[in-house]
Specification:
It contains one helix and two strands. It is of the alpha+beta class. It has one domain. A two-stranded antiparallel sheet has the order 1-2. The longest helix is centred in the middle third of the chain and has 18 residues. The radius of gyration is 17 Å and the shape is flat. Its EC number is 1.14.13.-. InterPro entries: CYP450_AA/FA_Hydroxylases, Cyt_P450, Cyt_P450_CS, Cyt_P450_sf. It is an enzyme of class 1 (oxidoreductase).
């Protein structure tokens, strides 16, 4: 995962001497969260969606339209419940 963007439009942890000292921790946690979500669930588009639009908004860094996905657990339900 590359956390730098060539045009520097988005700097999540600042840069230089005043950069965030927790950049490695934040990056590691973010990557682990994404990996656990991808590994723990089977992801599909909702039944009524045939095309997924990933076009960016012109005003900000968000998608032009929200991304909606259906997550189905890969493991049996009893493995997800804790008491």
């Amino acid at each position: 995962v590359v956390m730098t963007e060539p045009n520097l439009r988005f700097i999540s942890f600042s840069t230089g001497r005043r950069g965030c000292p927790g950049i490695m921790l934040g990056t590691t946690i973010t990557v682990m969260l994404l990996a656990r979500l991808l590994h723990g669930f089977t992801w599909t588009a909702p039944p009524n969606v045939s095309i997924i639009n990933l076009a960016e908004s012109k005003a900000d860094m968000f998608l032009a339209q929200p991304l909606v996905a259906v997550a189905r657990p890969r493991l049996p339900a009893e493995l997800y419940h804790t008491k």
